[in-house]
Amino acid sequence: MSALMKATNPWRLLDEFNREFGRMLPGFADDDSQVVGSTWAPAVDIKEEDDKFVIHADIPGVSPDDIEVSMEQGVLTIKGERKHEAEENKEGYHRVERAYGTFMRRFALPENVDAGKVSATSKDGVLELVLPKAQQGDQPRKIKVEG
Amino acid sequence: MSSLKQNLDRAWSQVQAGWNNLVSKASNALTHFRHRQEDESDEQSRALLRSSPEWALLAAEVHESADEVTVRLEIPGMNPDDLDVEVIDRTLVVRGQKQVSHARKEGRYHITECAYGSFERRLPLPAEVDPGQARASYEKGILTLELPKSERERVRRISIAKG
Predict the structure, then answer these.
(1) Are residues B11 and B53 in the same domain?
(2) Among chain B residues, CA nearest to A53
(3) Do B21 and B54 share a domain, yes or no?
(4) Which of A39, A59, B5, B80 has the most C-beta neighbours closer than 10 Å?
């Protein structure tokens, strides 16, 4: 904890600690990700580009096969389970900080996301979701005026 | 009115229990990420670095068997070349620098919870190990270190078993 004391801005730290608190303990998060049964929630970055949204989620130690991504009524759900790496003897552990079990996060998506074209890849414990924006088919097409 | 107070009391005791649980489990894993602007080459990456949290949980697991100590550390999204591992006496020191990957920098960020920057985590080891025999691997965002115990430690163990 000594590193904590050196923080130059305690309020920012408190804020971040609070956020970790919210992610780790069911019932305290500001979204509805923490439903009964899930034991942890991954941190995410969400960014918007001209033609798509991209979500990165830190999910270390989880095989792609154990991650489930689904879309329903405009809500994107990422859920899965982290399993123990090896069948090790339960004795002999000096430190266990890692969370095992099910995780989940949900996000309401903007209406212009094309649900049918969401793609997901996983690398080095980071899940990347690409959510293309739907083509605005009804908008008037630009017509070039020839001189 | 009294039931409201009861509910508040209960909620507060839950918060306290949760907080104590978090502190006991995670406070050691809470790791400072230094945001050095010079580590990122362009302004968009620097902007993400600035808005990312300065603290993150690098959760560890330390397991001891008869012959070796196994350490697993969750550090997603790293280039293994940016990790530096050292054993100083009976302390494991893991340093690293998590860079904003180039594919990530375009666009406008709505939520930034993932940490970037340089960090250092020190873990006390339960036994003396031989750093020359150590094996390290990085897979699915987990750094795994297998650290065989030193000769002296093994001899000590045998002598205790016989005594």
Answers:
(1) no
(2) B107
(3) no
(4) A59
CATH class of A11-84+99-132: mainly beta
The predicted model scores a pTM of 0.76
- In the 3-class helix/strand/coil scheme, how is chain B assigned residue by residue? CHHHHHHHHHHHHHHHHHHHHHHHHHCCCEEECECCHHHCCCHHHHHHHHHCCCEEECCEEEEECCCEEEEEEECCCCCHHHEEEEEECCEEEEEEEECCCHHHCCCEEEEECCCCEEEEEEEECCCCECHHHCEEEEECCEEEEEEEECHHHHHHHHHHHHC
Q: With an 8 Å Cβ cutoff, is B12 touching chain A?
A: no
The answer to whether the Cβ–Cβ distance between B77 and A125 falls below 8 Å is yes
Residue with tokens 């001189």: A147
B1 and B50, same domain (yes or no): no
- Model ipTM? 0.79
Q: Are residues B7 and B50 in the same domain?
A: no
Instruction: Verify that B7 and B84 share a domain, yes or no.
Output: no
Report the domain count for chain B.
2
- A and B: number of Cβ contacts within 8 A: 141
Instruction: Quote the domain boundaries for residue B14.
Output: 1-27
Distance from CA of A17 to the nearest CA of B (A): 8
Residues B54 and B23 in one domain: no
Query: Is B29 an 8 Å CB contact of chain A?
Result: yes
pLDDT in tens, B116-158: 999 999 999 999 999 999 999 999 999 999 999 998 887 776 6
